[in-house]
Specification:
- By secondary structure, the chain is α+β, with helices and mostly antiparallel strands.
- It has a domain of 87 residues.
- Helix content is 47%, strand content 19%.
- It has a 5-stranded mixed sheet.
- The longest helix is centred in the C-terminal third of the chain and has 48 residues.
Amino acid sequence: MLEEAEAVRRIFHSYLYEKKGAHLIAKELNNNGIFTVNGKLWEASTVTKILKNEKYLGDLTQWKYYTADFLTGQHVKNKGEVPVVHIPNHHEGIISREIWDEVQKQLAERGALKSEGKKYSNKYWFSSKMSCGKCGSQCGINPSSKFTRTIRYTTRAKFGKELRVDANGDTVGYDNKGVNENVLSFCMKHILEHIQESRENIINDLLIEIQKMQKNEKSIDVKQFETEIEKLSLKKRNAIDLMLESIISKDDLKEQTAFYENEVVRLTEEINKCKNINVFHNKQISEVKAFIAEVNKTAEIESDDTEFYGELLKKIVIHENNVLDYYLNCVPFGFRLTYHKKYLYEKDRELVISITSFSVIN
């Protein structure tokens, strides 16, 4: 089970953070001598099934398939013929809900590109991770840039940079300026150097966060509820004996039995609620520990390693007035930077970048 868990974590990590496809992930697993739980070679379809299987999140979905013919025992995929039962936090998951949600989003986005006949690309370390803070649209590379790559907005590419009102009365066009690729790298390097310099303080803050979770969100003991259910079950059996001895009537038994059963249902719901809370708290603590492990990794990485940038970066939000928000996978907060850039033409065209403000954001 441990080997399976490690393989699952690697698949989700490779797909989400390294932006690899199912074919490449399967190939790498096979080349590294890592096989499926059945001892078989990995295929792209097997990798995709794992990425879509909510059991690795900790949820349980029943009746995905049902028996269409009991005589033949034929099982078919449920397309709404019978109700599907979904139980969140049914068991302890291998991956966090945040990673699961991001992977499902990526699956949908890559699938949409494929259906449109387009190819998903992770050529650059920031590919598919940028959005506009003004309209929320995705950003991409402008291939016609003369000196270096710049980031373009989908809205601007479609309607142009001039704001205007179209025939339907809607305002179209986009006047926000693009961002130079060198600016993105410069800001990322600045953030990484800050993390390396402040690594001990960041880890201490994360450890304090764990202590708060353990202190304020203690696991709830469900034994008291289980004991109460046992007592109610005993009272229910005693009531039956009283009815058999004609001490109480059948109507009295029916009334008492209904009361006991309702109480058992209520206590069972409390138990499930407590178990779900305990699982949630454990996942929170696991995520904070994972953040600490990722922060520690930055100490061994060169601050200009763009390959590592891609693994570390979650998303960049581009705002007006040269403001950028960076969200990384190694810390549960973001960074806001304001930059200034200018070109020098004394010798060759040289871009000079500086950071004018830097802060941590939630």
